[in-house]
From TrEMBL:
EC assignment: 3.6.4.13
Biased composition (Pro residues): 413-425
Motif (Q motif): 30-58
Keywords: ATP-binding, Cytoplasm, Helicase, Hydrolase, mRNA processing, mRNA transport, Nucleotide-binding, RNA-binding, Translation regulation, Transport
Residues of the Helicase C-terminal domain: 241-401
Protein name per its UniProtKB record: ATP-dependent RNA helicase DHH1
Subcellular location: Cytoplasm, P-body
Residue stretches in coiled coil: none
Every Helicase ATP-binding domain range: 61-231
InterPro entries given in the database record: DEAD/DEAH_box_helicase_dom (IPR011545), Helicase_ATP-bd (IPR014001), Helicase_C-like (IPR001650), P-loop_NTPase (IPR027417), RNA-helicase_DEAD-box_CS (IPR000629), RNA_helicase_DEAD_Q_motif (IPR014014)
Gene: DHH1
One GO BP: regulation of translation
Amino acid sequence: MSQEDWTSQLKKPTKDTRPQTDDVLNTKGNTFEDFFLKRELLMGIFEAGFEKPSPIQEESIPVALAGRDILARAKNGTGKTAAFVIPSLEKVKPKINKIQALIMVPTRELALQTSQVVRTLGKHCGVSCMVTTGGTNLRDDILRLNETVHVLVGTPGRVLDLASRKVADLSECSLFIMDEADKMLSRDFKTIIEQILIFLPPQHQSLLFSATFPITVKEFMVKHLHKPYEINLMEELTLKGITQYYAFVEERQKLHCLNTLFSKLQVNQAIIFCNSTNRVELLAKKITDLGYSCYYSHARMRQQERNKVFHEFRQGKVRTLVCSDLLTRGIDIQAVNVVINFDFPKTAETYLHRIGRSGRFGHLGLAINLINWNDRFNLYKIEQELGTEIAAIPATIDKSLYVAEDVSTVPTPFPLQPQSLPQPPTQQQQQPPYGSPAQGFTPQNFAHQLPPQGLAPQGFPAAQSLSPQGLAPQGLSPQVLAQGLPQGIPQGLAQGLPQGIMAQGIPPNFAAQPHY
């Protein structure tokens, strides 16, 4: 069968016609066929909607296939995951019933997402992939490892536990991959990674990917990598498709400004970041009380709850996600076109990862930072470190900077496998702790029909039980939280939100109808 014959029979998704930037378009013109990949893998690649390799894929895939160690630095959202998943699937031999590739990631949500990329791209390859993370049932993982596993995706603690118990046999694992290598080699994980390497064969191949490479990564390279091929596609640190603004706002007025932004922006999906778990929960409750659909996620939640939030947000069942820095790394939800830093981050690295949740794979996105008097020096420092400009928010924001003309072309996320999905709620968990779902709501198209009322996933910690005083130590007035939003914005905010964007209130149909 000729190439035209078999490619014409593939079930390809709707073509994504959104404009893209040079972050993913500035390639040498290679195609996936130029890498001499097996047809089964090419079928999975094309059926996932991939057309041509991005720069990081173009640089790393042939080198990885040649067996070289790789140290690759590229921007968030430019295709790093596929850059190591594709060579992994090409090199794995399905007839050998052993773990042949180990992919290490820092968070449980990123592990779920990465494992699904492996399954989606490799669905015709006969490759079995397993995801294992802390916070899940260890016995289930042990039973699963009694079956065939070719690719193991996991977080460091659980992988080390399974390897130490001699349940996960890594003796024939010839491919070791670290995504978000800067985080993986921080003090939180470095010792665990070193212990895991003991269980791998001495001649294994190592692939390290990240957006930043601190000294710890370079030290690891010298110690463990053999003549690595270094890739650096980081002439600029921030994605070209992300427009960045700041609004100078007093702490007690942030809720009002956020409300105004919601009423004026055309939000497909938005992620809002806070600097503490208490502020995450309190802000999510306030957004829900205003009538917007909203979930929240942070590290203190049970893994089952976090999985449910992650899955349903990816599926477009809710428009807004409030979270801590738990979801700053690697999470790829292409429908997100707005990121708001309700609390301004302390470091340039955190800022870079946060705003990278929008503008995925060369598309357009908007990042808005609500800053107060104490943040002004940090804003300047981050601008200098990243070599970027964060401008004052204008009276009106051009929709062409962050809104897709045809939202139907926004690709749907890879569906999670049943083993990754949250379990049905128990009898005690039937009533959501805040908000109420729309009666009879069933999403028919991704991100096209959203619940008009705020709702929380079943089994969440009760947000109402949290005292509004929890935000007071950081300057947010308890009276504002307890009694609602202030009636106006003080005139003294000379660099705050301009009058053109300060329409009061929420349009009555905003929550009921999607804004695109």
